[in-house]
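Exercise: predict the fold of this chain.
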Amino acid sequence: MQVKIEDSWKKVLSEIFERDFFQRLVSFVKDEYQNQQVFPPGKEIFNAFHHCPIDSVKVVILGQDPYHGPGQAHGLSFSVKPGVPFPPSLLNILKEIKSDIGKDMPPNGDLTRWAQQGVFLLNATLTVRANQAGSHQNQGWETFTDEVIKAVNDHRQNVVFMLWGAYAQKKADLIDNTKHLVLKAPHPSPLSAHRGFLGCKHFSMANQYLSERNIKPINW
């Protein structure tokens, strides 16, 4: 099957799309979209890739599952469309940005503006059934997104990886920290944000790292 994905990513991932696990994943996802309510909308599954070609990646922020409530997920980790209330984790991310660099809360939670600056907002699993968190885990998405992380590691230099929470931090083994910056903190969810996410200063640290390498920092 032809995967509709941005050209630079298609080039580095084309071999992955031919693998048996990915063909099985495609069949599973197609079946789910035909028979269940699944988020995000099908045309938005690869939004993170479309907005941020691999050659543009400066920062990777890894999420776990898409949001599973109506109208929330649109293919960018932690992001919601304009008009959708801020989910709790996103609210804590924006609070930390305010505390870290003094930037006021934005009018909405749409992080497309980050993606267009080189922030790759990748979920480990790219689809989910409505109201069933984790329902598309262990179907092949994690294998695919691990390959995506490896591709960024191999093809890019001086990328900042923000790994929040134990799940994301397991991916550190895929990243060469001699050529990239790996930042770790607890997850921004209300259950854990007070254990060190709030106060982690990842956003200023990322921009300092980029600036020191003559890479344009992110306007968070």
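Check your answer against the key: Residues 37 and 175 are 35 Å apart (CA to CA).
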